[in-house]
């Protein structure tokens, strides 16, 4: 039997990139991810008059060097990979610094290559146009990214999506994998492997 195709997001699903690490380094602050409710951390944390300076500061950093892998992510992805045909589906554009985003493609590629050696790089889809991809299952932390062509849509819990209402989820046919990112992979395992 053909395996079902599963689209898997990276940021906030497999890992938190080093973005927050560098925000803290830049500001001398000690923010943690749960201090935020908005997706774009820099928009909230970085004062407007230091935004250009901050973008220059992070332009040469590897955001995946200090990435925090979410609890049980690799272990559960490995199990899922036995049952499903997994494609990585992830954006690499920093909307606040599009010109320098090429480095993100490379750094994310190298990161995934090391972290998930059992998924072929030929199955990396780096795009913002997630809605063009057909699949059976999709896991993403942003409701907007969950594709209407996909039959089983799973919202991965994250600091920025607590506000998504059950009504919205129902309307879009989306299942929420719990409400705590620390337990998100336990919940995905329960949904997809039982
Ligand atoms: Mg994401």
Report on this model:
This protein is α/β, with parallel strands linked by helices and 194 residues long. The protein has two domains: 5-15 and 68-193, Rossmann fold, CATH 3.40.50.1000; 19-59, no CATH class. 34% of the residues lie in helices and 14% in strands. The protein is built from seven helices and eight strands; from the N terminus they run ββαααβαβαβββαβα. The strands form two sheets. The protein has a six-stranded parallel β-sheet with strand order 5-4-1-6-7-8. Helix 5 (102-115) links the parallel strand 4 and strand 5 (124-126). Helix 4 packs parallel to helix 7 (184-193). The longest helix is centred in the middle third of the chain and has 14 residues, at 102-115. The protein is globular. The mean pLDDT is 95. The site of magnesium ion (MG) has 7 residues, from loops.
């Amino acid at each position: 039997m053909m395996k079902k195709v599963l689209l898997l997001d990276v940021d906030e699903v497999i890992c938190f990139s080093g973005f927050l690490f560098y925000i803290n380094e830049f500001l001398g602050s000690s923010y943690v991810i749960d201090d935020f409710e908005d997706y774009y951390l820099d928009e909230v944390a970085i004062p407007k008059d230091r935004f250009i300076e901050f973008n220059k500061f992070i332009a040469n950093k590897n955001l995946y060097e200090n990435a925090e892998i979410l609890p049980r992510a690799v272990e559960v992805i490995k199990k899922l990979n036995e049952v499903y045909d997994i494609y990585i589906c992830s954006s690499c554009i920093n909307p606040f610094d599009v010109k320098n985003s090429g480095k993100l493609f490379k750094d994310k590629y190298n990161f995934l290559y090391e972290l998930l050696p059992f998924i072929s790089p030929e199955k990396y889809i780096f795009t913002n146009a997630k809605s063009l991809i057909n699949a059976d299952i999709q896991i993403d932390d942003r409701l907007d990214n969950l594709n209407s062509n996909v039959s089983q849509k799973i919202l991965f819990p994250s600091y920025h999506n607590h506000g998504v209402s059950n009504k919205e989820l129902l309307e879009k046919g989306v299942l929420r994998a719990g409400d705590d990112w620390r337990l998100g992979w336990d919940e995905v395992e329960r949904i997809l492997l039982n």
